[in-house]
Write a sequence for this structure.
């Protein structure tokens, strides 16, 4: 019996990608020194872990949950209570490992709630997750001792001393808190990615694709879903713990339907079919929620519209859009798209600008009218009482819409041609794919 | 609890339950026909209330009663035609997410147009106040609640008649289970679907018209009632109108009696002779009165039914 | 010798309609057994009952002597029975190779492990590659299963069914919708992969049945009206009547 020689080259691509990611995490705060940017990045980190944990359910196991904030929120509550104990000297534990407390708390509830909810997938699972989410939220106002009522529970992350040789950082300076979050985010990303390469991860994919068949290859689909939910709730709890440390306050909002909806939006916008999709989605969502909200009151409207547009025209999310274009690039046909893209993007920008101008002016009229009719849009003054402003906005919108329609048709034609060529090539060269 | 109090709360519960059923029936029809759970259904309820507020400010309550639901119905049909239909080809999850995103957007738009505070959409003068002859019997029951019940019953009976006695109702019923066959027979099923979606939204809008001034009209109303309506249809069994009816009434009664009850587990234990005071373990739970726990009750019921009978009370399908 | 698969007085009703009326059957180990019958006779229902997809109304089913009545599909599969589906039931978003690898994981003992790296599991990989070769889909190894042609998907379906090392294989119309040449390939595949195992298959294509089967059972209106070797079945007048109807008044 001859020995089978195994040739397994190092997956260089994977090492490069992870190494590059680590580098980005390390250098980001050094390149962007202002407080706001670092705060933004810290919040992105938390959201990335949260969204990736959510995608363990949606993208990998086919479970649409409307109540994921329960696990992150409860984890946050446990973490902040632990933080107050640390501050009082009742609990010798390093603050840097507090997310683990959140993680295990989230996991505990994952075990309990998961057992009840994973008997079914699909719509019943979605509904029961919604029910449990609302239940926990409503319950949070009933037990002010643990949940702190409307005001919530606050803490102080600068408390805490050294523990078993782990040096205590005060976590007062923003750069320290950034690196703490970055470290946890990087570790969680690796862990969750590793999970996708395990038997459980792959079987969860099978259960997603065809739960009935999965039973017939020997797997108890309920057990698979339950396990995935337990693991997912652990990471959600980690995100919650980090949130408790970062914001130093946990309230009922942390377990609310708004939070659950937010992570759903983030994961879906990025795209649920690829691992890096929710990472992208978390970044985009945080930009909307934290950065954009500084500039306009209409950010939630923009977020909602952006989300609905993605659902309607690109349900695979931003990651699918990127990969579709990368595929065209791989086949060396991207050059033909340059001009169509140019026209498309230009007209889309005009259309968007027109919409934004109108929306901002309407918002100003109904919400801030007491501040006077003048507003600043992209640095330019607009007077909401003068008809010129409105005419200008409407004409930009109309012009943009017409141009966009024309550009879209043109783009679609070129794109379609390219896709046909690619598909033909694949059909004629099956071994090379 | 006196008998009068019991009777009034019973009527309150039934009127709220009927309102819930107006919402749940529209949602069930849409779900049965199109397989999509309309997350934005409660948002159309909210739009109905706001439209009614605006129209009643211009021309009064009674025209609003007719015009507002129609407007909401048209809006629903437009949403189906230009939005939902496009998403249909991607499958059920994107459809659900579309309606989810829509509910988000609607709340924002409502806030933009009418502001973030509650609007003073109030009961019209002629329907305000308690019913005189009941008052003489010692029962204080508002005229408007009776009006609500009347409108709800009228609307539901006419919908039932429409579905079972007319030709278009027959087509709708057939499309519920065999849309492709109905299309093959020459009926314009997409148009029927658009009509059903619009009608479902109009029903929700009507519920908003009569509910918005009985309760409060504010941007948060969609979220508050939306969750309860989902409980209703899952509890009653997804796709079952009779189940939704029973569940609506049940939840209406639970709401009415729960919110006004001071009973608690601690009180019950005390009645049995056990001492329950702040030192007792778990006192935080025992001392909660039913009124304090009321917000959680519907969801508790949802969780329980999904554990013990996932099909719901009278459900026929589990997906 | 215990039968590999034994049905005793199996009955199944959906509501008031009795679909399976008192079916008893014993398949010895290693036998290739075909179940034929007119449409609507209840053949697929029988499969669904055996594999645990539907519960029985009454009766028992034994697998290698063990009672599997009322057990869940995954329990039955773990006890050594595997089935394919009439309507292709594969994991459409996973690649062909991944489909097969998933099918071998439980039988290799990896169960719900989330600490093993899939790519380092040599035994799973070897087994999946071996089956990939046997079903002739090596060239399509990394294509998503949903993108395969119909016949390729049927081959994958069979591959998934035999991957788990079950010793009783149920194939539900494996050659449904195939052309002549595709059918011939499928028959050769089935013969090859079921060597040394017990095979029970539902089929409509008589050439496949008479070519592969050791014994045939004929199911009509939920009952077995005849059971025996192909020659006996071919000559049986009851079978002819069931398939062709009587001279006058038959449809």
């Amino acid at each position: 019996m001859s020995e089978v020689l195994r040739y397994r080259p190092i997956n260089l691509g994977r090492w490069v990608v992870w190494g590059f990611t680590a580098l980005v995490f390390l250098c980001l705060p050094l390149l962007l020194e202002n407080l706001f940017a670092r705060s933004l990045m810290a919040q992105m980190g938390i959201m990335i872990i949260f969204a990736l944990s959510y995608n363990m359910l949606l993208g990998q196991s086919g479970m649409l949950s409307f109540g994921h904030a329960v696990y992150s929120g409860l984890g946050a509550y446990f973490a902040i209570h632990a933080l107050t104990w640390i501050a009082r000297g009742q609990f010798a534990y390093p603050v840097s490992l507090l997310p683990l407390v959140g993680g295990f708390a989230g996991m505990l509830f994952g075990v309990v709630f998961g057992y009840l909810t994973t008997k079914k997938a699909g719509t019943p699972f979605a509904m029961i997750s919604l029910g449990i989410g609302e239940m926990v939220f409503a319950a949070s106002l009933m037990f002010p001792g643990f949940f702190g009522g409307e005001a919530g529970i606050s803490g102080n992350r600068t408390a805490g001393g050294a523990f078993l040789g782990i040096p205590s950082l005060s976590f007062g300076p923003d750069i320290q808190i950034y690196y703490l979050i970055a470290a946890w985010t990087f570790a969680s990303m690796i862990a969750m990615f590793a999970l996708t390469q395990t038997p459980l991860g792959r079987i969860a994919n099978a259960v997603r694709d065809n739960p009935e068949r999965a039973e017939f290859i020997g797997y108890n689909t309920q057990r698979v879903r339950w396990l995935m939910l337990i693991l997912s709730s652990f990471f959600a709890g980690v995100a919650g713990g980090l949130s408790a440390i970062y914001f130093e306050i946990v309230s009922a909002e942390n377990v609310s339907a708004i939070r659950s909806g937010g992570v759903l939006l983030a994961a879906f916008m990025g795209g649920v079919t690829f691992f890096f999709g929710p990472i992208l989605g978390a970044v985009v969502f945080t930009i909307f929620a934290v950065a954009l909200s500084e500039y306009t009151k209409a950010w939630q409207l923009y977020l909602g519209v952006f989300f609905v547009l993605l659902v309607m025209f690109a349900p695979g999310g931003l990651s699918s859009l990127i990969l579709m274009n990368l595929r065209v690039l791989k086949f060396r046909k991207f050059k033909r798209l340059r001009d169509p893209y140019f026209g498309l993007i230009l007209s889309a920008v005009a259309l968007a600008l027109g919409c934004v101008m109108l929306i901002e002016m309407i918002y100003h009229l109904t919400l801030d009218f007491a501040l006077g009719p003048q507003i600043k849009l992209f640095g330019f003054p607009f007077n909401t009482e003068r008809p010129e402003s409105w005419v200008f906005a409407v004409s930009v919108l109309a012009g943009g819409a017409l141009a966009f329609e024309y550009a879209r048709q043109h783009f679609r034609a070129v794109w379609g041609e390219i896709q046909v060529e690619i598909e033909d090539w694949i059909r004629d060269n099956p071994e090379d794919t | 609890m006196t008998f009068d109090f019991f009777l009034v709360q019973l009527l309150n519960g039934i009127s709220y339950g009927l309102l819930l059923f107006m919402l749940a029936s529209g949602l069930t029809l849409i779900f049965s026909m199109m397989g999509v759970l309309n997350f934005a259904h409660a948002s159309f309820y909210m739009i109905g209330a706001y439209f009614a507020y605006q129209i009643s400010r211009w021309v009064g309550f009674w025209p609003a009663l007719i015009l507002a639901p129609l407007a909401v119905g048209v809006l629903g049909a437009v949403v189906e035609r230009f939005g939902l239909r496009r998403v249909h080809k991607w499958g059920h999850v994107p459809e659900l997410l579309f309606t989810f995103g829509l509910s988000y957007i609607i709340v924002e738009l409502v806030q933009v147009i009418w502001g973030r505070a509650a609007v003073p959409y109030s009961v019209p003068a002629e329907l305000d106040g308690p019913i005189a002859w009941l008052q003489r019997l010692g029962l204080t029951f508002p005229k408007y609640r009776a009006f609500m019940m009347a409108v709800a019953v009228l609307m539901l009976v006419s919908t039932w008649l429409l579905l079972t006695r007319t030709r278009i109702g027959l087509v709708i019923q057939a499309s519920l289970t065999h849309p492709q066959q109905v299309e093959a027979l020459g009926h314009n099923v997409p148009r029927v679907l658009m009509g059903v979606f619009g009608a479902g939204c109009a029903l929700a809008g009507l519920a908003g018209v009569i509910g918005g001034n009985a309760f409060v009209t504010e941007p948060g109303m969609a979220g508050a009632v939306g969750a309860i309506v989902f409980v209703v249809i899952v509890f009653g069994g997804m796709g079952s109108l009779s189940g939704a009816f029973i569940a609506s009434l049940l939840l209406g009664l639970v709401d009415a009696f729960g919110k006004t009850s001071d009973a608690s587990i601690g009180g019950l234990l005390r009645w049995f002779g056990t001492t329950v005071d702040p030192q007792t373990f778990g006192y935080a739970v025992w001392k909660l009165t039913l009124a304090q726990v009321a917000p959680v009750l519907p969801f508790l019921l949802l969780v329980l039914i999904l554990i013990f009978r996932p099909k719901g009370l009278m459900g026929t399908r589990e997906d | 010798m215990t039968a590999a698969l034994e049905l005793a007085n199996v009955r199944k009703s959906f509501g008031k309609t009795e679909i399976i009326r008192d079916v008893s059957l014993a398949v010895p180990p290693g036998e290739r057994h075909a179940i034929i019958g007119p449409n609507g006779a209840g053949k697929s229902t029988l499969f669904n009952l055996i594999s645990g997809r539907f519960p029985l109304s009454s009766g028992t089913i034994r697998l290698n002597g063990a009672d599997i009545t009322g057990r869940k599909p995954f329990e039955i599969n773990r006890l050594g029975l595997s089935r394919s589906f009439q309507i292709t039931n594969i994991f459409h978003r996973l690649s062909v190779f991944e489909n097969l690898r998933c099918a071998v994981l439980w039988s290799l003992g990896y169960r719900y492990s989330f600490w093993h790296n899939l790519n380092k599991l040599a035994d799973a990989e070897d087994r999946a590659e071996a089956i990939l070769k046997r079903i002739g889909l090596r060239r399509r190894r990394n294509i998503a299963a949903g993108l395969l042609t119909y016949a390729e998907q049927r081959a994958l379906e069979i591959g998934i069914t035999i991957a788990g090392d079950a010793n009783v294989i149920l194939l539900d119309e494996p050659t449904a919708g195939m052309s002549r040449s595709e059918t011939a390939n499928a028959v050769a595949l089935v013969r090859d992969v079921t060597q040394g195992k017990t095979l029970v298959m539902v089929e409509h294509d008589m050439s496949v049945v008479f070519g592969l089967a050791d014994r045939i059972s004929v199911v009509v209106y939920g009952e077995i009206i005849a059971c025996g070797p192909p020659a006996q079945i071919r000559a049986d007048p009851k079978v002819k009547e069931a398939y062709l109807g009587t001279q006058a008044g038959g449809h």
